[in-house]
Specification:
InterPro entries: Acyl_CoA_acyltransferase (IPR016181), GNAT_dom (IPR000182), N-acetyltransferase (IPR051531). It comes from Sphingomonas molluscorum. Pfam families: Acetyltransf_3. Keywords: Transferase. This protein is an alpha+beta fold. The protein is globular. The chain has one domain: Gcn5-related N-acetyltransferase (GNAT) (Aminopeptidase, 3-Layer(aba) Sandwich), CATH 3.40.630. The protein is built from 6 helices and 8 strands, in the order ββαααβββαβαββα. Strands 1-2-3-4-5-6-8-7 form an 8-stranded mixed sheet. The two termini are 29 Å apart.
Length: 184
């Protein structure tokens, strides 16, 4: 099994800096995590208060099963989104992400997720990354497909969420697919 690093490395892209999630990011992420539109496809309802967001982020930051990077503009500022990686089995991990509404369509989510994929495949030597998304989450599906993920299957009635029983689409990406497609 690939060991999880003790501390998350800071990752940099042309426009972003990705660092470990902290409970102090609650103020910046609360508008997104409490927004019903942003949380439609999430596995839990919008956060009801800043205190609930802070408690949620504290649990996530302390999790031994998930690693959470927040991304901030390279020139400075507060968190505008996050990328989470869940350890699932030897060499394979699950990917999740979210970006603030005002930054959607800017390419920043793709940039952040790409940086994490580079790290997982090149630095950690993972063999597979997968994502679980709602069939109606067209923006997430489009991002995964632009990144080279392959739709591998549909799990019927997989999730019971705040919007009802939902199917789940599983997208997968293998190390060689990612590394072969990256610019040299």
């Amino acid at each position: 099994m690939n060991p999880v690093p003790a501390a998350l490395p800071v990752l940099a892209t042309p426009r972003l800096r990705l660092r470990a999630l902290e409970a102090a990011d609650a103020e910046a992420l609360h508008p997104t995590l409490s927004d019903p539109g942003s949380m439609t496809w999430w596995s839990h309802p919008p956060m009801e208060s800043l205190a609930a967001t802070r408690a949620h982020l504290e649990r996530n930051a302390a999790s031994s099963d998930w690693r959470n990077w927040v991304f901030v503009p390279r020139e400075g500022g507060s968190a505008i989104g996050f990328v989470a990686v869940g350890e699932k089995r030897n060499g394979a991990c699950e990917l999740g992400y979210m970006i603030a509404r005002e930054h959607r369509g800017s390419g920043l989510a793709r940039e952040a997720v790409s940086a994490v994929l580079d790290h997982l495949f090149a630095a950690e030597g993972r063999r597979r990354v997968f994502a679980d998304t709602d069939p109606d989450n067209l923006a997430s599906r489009a991002l995964l497909e632009r990144l080279g993920f392959t739709l591998e299957g549909r799990l019927r009635a997989e999730w019971e969420t705040h919007i009802g029983i939902r199917d789940s689409l599983i997208y997968g990406l293998l190390r060689d697919e990612w590394l072969d497609a990256r610019p040299r």
